Amino acid sequence: MTQAAYKRVLLKLSGEALMGDDAYGINRATIERMVADVKEVAQLGVELAIVIGGGNIFRGVAPGAQGMDRATADYMGMLATVMNSLALADAMRQQGMTARVMSAISIEQVVEPYVRPKALQYLEEGKIVIFAAGTGNPFFTTDTAAALRGSEIGAQVVLKATKVDGVYSADPNKDPSATRYSSISFDEAISRHLQVMDATAFALCRDQKLPIRVFSIVKPGALARIVLGEDEGTLVHV
Ligand SMILES: Nc1ncnc2c1ncn2[C@@H]1O[C@H](COP(=O)(O)OP(=O)(O)OP(=O)(O)O)[C@@H](O)[C@H]1O
Ligand SMILES: O=c1ccn([C@@H]2O[C@H](COP(=O)(O)O)[C@@H](O)[C@H]2O)c(=O)[nH]1
Fold this sequence. Notes:
Blueprint: E1 8-13, H1 28-42, E2 47-52, H2 55-65, H3 70-94, E3 99-103, E4 112-113, H4 116-124, E5 128-132, H5 142-152, E6 157-162, E7 183-185, H6 186-191, H7 199-207, E8 212-216, H8 222-227, E9 234-237
Parallel strand pairs: 1-2, 1-6, 2-5, 3-4, 3-5, 6-8, 7-9
Antiparallel strand pairs: 8-9
Helix pairs in contact: 1-3, 2-3, 5-7
């Protein structure tokens, strides 16, 4: 059997990437392909925890949220991640995997609450744990939730799966002359204000010495290549 480079990872899945080519929402073929990528890695025996963003749903409600109280809008964003988490867990079930959704916001009729020892138990049992509702607090992002949960569960790496294939000198969707880093330190990413992740997430991972690898979820086989130790995307390190 091929040997994985990591025992436990925190995978941050982009909510926006779930839209595929649609304007918002969840594209069926896209979620099935993402889950197939996750399955490939789970079959290597890697313990997998996942945080998923909410941009695909939040984008759809954003015009109506204009002028809203920030904290209220943020709670709506967190609820969007719960919807994505449920969809992801169900798509995993359909592909024969066992996933548990744990929410940072109490909605016990829908999903169980986040309890760290329980999450660790699920991971040790080989179940995939999906952390929903971000950090449970407004004014944060799911990237910060990934840094936080990754630190709490003792993940060896945070894998940020997004629509771009790494960290660039500027947003590659806005600046065609931007160049990709194969690796960059946390301090440099923060001081250069690189917007691929928020500074809170970078700072938390830096302080916990938890590396981040940013890669494209659209690129076939990228997740498996990273887990097998190949150099893919951008490594953000101490
Ligand atoms: N320096 C940069 N390098 C790479 N991408 C960048 C950079 N600056 C900005 N970006 C943008 O950041 C985006 C990825 O981060 P973003 O938080 O927006 O998405 P996500 O976390 O993947 O989505 P979601 O919030 O739905 O989970 C990229 O699509 C890219 O356009
Ligand atoms: O800890 C958190 C996480 C998220 N939010 C809100 O949810 C949306 C969607 O998350 P993304 O990371 O952008 O995908 C985010 O814009 C926040 O409004 C939050 O408040 N706290």
